[in-house]
Design goal:
This protein has 437 residues and is an alpha+beta fold. The chain contains 16 helices and 14 strands. The strands form 4 sheets. It has a 4-stranded mixed sheet with strand order 2-1-3-4, with no helix packed on it. A 4-stranded antiparallel sheet has the order 5-12-9-10. Strands 6-8-7-11 form a 4-stranded mixed sheet.
Length: 437
């Protein structure tokens, strides 16, 4: 085989510079070079010629070559006619080194989980049995208020729709920590209810633990419970949502598995997570799902490696105050404005920021006004969090993510050398301090 380099590509018409010739296979340098580069990538492409009732399938496409090469990253900017023979797809093209996650810029695949955040985030419980959910009136019939201690085992329950739209005000039976005999003797009405509504479903489940512990939630999140103990509130976000919203939730409420729970009651941490800095990070490191390609918050990717700022006491106080004001303002708006939901607040905020209000009805003006207040607090919070990082407040999202990737690497090196910036030292050090260094 010839090992001579390929001839240079001829000039393009119009005086444009020639593109770099594609790497040639078979040369000695290629055989010795184990590096692989992506020279073309489309991270999110619709499956075209789909029928009306077909699933909304999305695919990724890549082309790779040996050696160190920049590539072209194609983004689908708009799409229509996907069920026809002539689909219309709009594209934007960017060039540069394409990372393994099919993105340009900072390599997000290099980030590492931080010990500082260890043990504080988890999905909520997964029931595996609809019979665990009851209405308040059903809970009374099952002995709530009459059977001693039952108030610790029938609790308010919330899922994503409860937090984002309208709460159903449902309750959940939660018998974690009790054996079958204890349930039968202490709470006979509850035992009989679950025996009739949950056990038949569990009996046909393939997982042995679900069959054997049929009165306990399928995934009771045993590690989540000690992290929540003693807290008056925790922070929650809906796993998959058009808007990345973080809320304070009372610790008496048991969260559903479609909520990501953060066992933190420090309003400073809430404020940082509410900020656009954390939201940009979570959007880039999380995934997307569904017809609307909604962002997904993945705890291991979005929270575990996230480097919180190291503020001065004054900066911490400002962020905490703004976080509490934002949380209280949203809750007051939901209580005072009929029909308003958390999702609608943020839909109106998005319209407000686009300047897309037009002529509003009286009801719409009330909704838009509350969204305007929420937006203003968000702006102030973004400025305060940026100041805590020591960054300008007008950094573009790509630069924010690049800086956070670099800060993650610095914090990981600090932890390797023995310095950990614990978020909840009183809880974390006794449990995870042995991992330090």
């Amino acid at each position: 085989e010839s090992t001579e380099p390929p001839p240079p590509a001829p000039p393009r018409r119009g005086g444009e510079p020639a593109k770099e010739a594609p790497p040639q296979r078979g040369g000695e340098s290629d055989r010795n070079d184990r590096t692989l580069s992506l020279i073309l990538a489309i991270a999110d492409h619709p499956w075209t010629k789909a029928t009306k009732d077909a699933a909304a399938v999305r695919i990724a496409m890549t082309v790779a070559a040996r050696g160190q090469h920049d590539g072209r990253l194609i983004e689908i900017t708009h799409e229509s006619g996907l069920d026809s023979d002539a689909p219309i797809l709009g594209e934007s093209i960017a060039s540069g080194r394409i990372n393994p996650d099919l993105k340009l810029g900072a390599d997000l695949t290099t980030v590492k989980p931080l010990l500082a955040n260890e043990g504080l985030a988890s999905p909520g419980v997964k029931l595996h049995g609809a019979g665990f959910i009851v209405t308040p009136s059903e809970a009374v019939h099952l002995g709530l208020g009459r059977r001693d201690g039952l108030e610790r085992h029938i609790r308010p329950y919330r899922n994503g729709r409860d937090l984002q739209l309208n709460s159903r005000d449902l309750m959940v039976i939660d018998l974690f920590g009790l054996n079958e005999g204890e349930v039968r003797s202490r709470f006979p009405e509850v035992y009989q209810h679950l025996l009739a509504t949950v056990k038949p479903e569990r009996d046909i489940n393939r997982r042995a633990s679900y069959k054997q512990l049929w009165w306990v939630h399928g995934e009771p999140r045993k590690d989540l419970r000690p992290a929540l103990f003693g807290l008056s509130h925790y922070v929650a976000t809906v796993e998959t949502s058009k808007f990345r919203i973080f809320q304070r939730v009372g610790s008496e409420i048991l969260p559903d598995n479609k909520l990501i729970v953060f066992c933190i009651d420090d309003p400073f941490c809430l404020g940082v997570m509410m900020s656009s800095i954390h939201v940009h990070w979570a959007t880039e490191l999380g995934g997307w799902i569904g017809y609307g390609n909604d962002p997904v918050y993945v705890k291991s990717k979005c929270f575990d490696p996230f480097p919180f700022p190291d503020p001065t006491p004054a900066q911490r106080a400002v962020i905490a105050d703004l976080a509490e004001e934002l949380d209280a303002t949203r809750k007051a708006a939901l209580a005072e404005v009929p029909g308003l939901t958390m999702t609608e607040i943020y839909n109106w905020r998005a319209r407000l920021r686009r300047g897309d209000l037009g002529n509003l009805l009286d009801r719409e003006r009330a909704h838009a006004a509350r969204a305007g207040i929420v937006d203003r607090i968000h702006q102030q919070l973004d400025e305060a969090v940026a100041a805590a990082y020591g960054w300008p407040s007008d950094l573009p999202p790509a630069e924010i993510v690049t800086r956070l990737v670099a800060l993650n690497a610095a914090r990981a090196e600090e932890e390797r050398l023995g310095t950990v910036r614990w978020l909840r030292p009183d809880y974390q050090i006794p449990r995870f301090g042995a991992q330090k260094g």
